[in-house]
Amino acid sequence: MNEKPPSAPAKPVDASQKEPPRIVELAAAIYQLRGEKPGSHVYLIKGEAKNVLIDTGMAAGFSALKSRLAELGLRVRDIDLIILTHEHYDHIGATAYFHPTAVVAAHRLAANKVELQDEFVTFRKYRDQSSKPFWVDVWLEDGSVIDLGNYELDVVHTPGHTSGCICLYEPQGGLLFTGDTVFAGGTLSEIAVGGNVSDYVNSVRRLSNLKIKKLFPGHGKVSGTPDEDLPRSIVYARTMLDECKTFFEAFTKTRKLQDKLGSAFGYWAEPGDHQEESAQQRRT
What we know:
It is a single chain. By secondary structure, the chain is α/β, with parallel strands linked by helices. Helices cover 32% and strands 19% of the residues. The strands form two sheets. Strands 1-2-3-4-5-6-7 form a seven-stranded mixed beta sheet. Strands 8-9-10-11-12 form a five-stranded mixed beta sheet, with no helix packed on it. It is globular, with a radius of gyration of 24 Å.
C-alpha cells in the first residue's frame, strides 16, 4: 500500500493580509458596515430620535447587511430613515427591503431618476440582482437639515459624479459622509451619466470650505486627513476639466463632432454652413 506523501506545512498567516472588520464603530453611535465589492459601504447612525442608514449597498448584499444590523441589535424594521447619497445601483440596491417601514430620502435630482426607474442612469437591472421598485418619500435640497437628536446632518448638494449626488455634513464633530463624491487621498469618481466636470470642480471647492475632521466615503478607506485630501481633489477636478477641454478642442477641429451631431448643434458651425446644408438636402 502506497503511503501518502507528507503534506506541506501550513504557511504562517500574515497579519497584514487579514480582512478588515465588517463593522467598525467610527464615532459614538456611528458605524460603518463595510460593503461587499462592488457594493458601497453602508453607514448606520443610532440617533436619539431615529435609526438612520446612509445608503444601502446592492440588493445582492442585503442578506449580509441584515446580519450586520442584527449584530448591532437591530432588525430591518428598526431602521427609520434611509438617506441615499445618489442614484447608482451599488448605493440604492437594498433600499426596497427597508421601504415598507422606513422613510427614504434623496436629493430631488436623484429621487426623480429612482422614481421613474431610469435604468440608463441607475443600472439596477443590468448590474445587480432584481429587487422591487421603490420611491423616494422626501426630496432633499441643498441646505436641508436632518436632526437626529445626538447628531445633525446638513445636506450639501455635490453634483459632478452624477447630478443628484449629496454629501452629509455633521458640523459638531466635523464628519463628512461623501458617497461617491470624494474618497480618501482626494480621489474622485468617474463622470457618470447625468454628471459633469464643471459641477464637480465647484462641488469639491465648496466642500473644502467646511471644517472637516473625518471623511467617510462610499468606498475604500476612511480618511482622517481631509485637510490634505480636499485640496488634492480640487487639483484632480481641475485636471479632469482641462483634459476634457483639450480633448473637445481637438475633436471639434476635425469637424467630426459637427458631422456626428448634425444641425441641432449648429452653433459650432461656421457662417453659411446651414445654407449649404439646406441646399444639399434639396438636391438629394
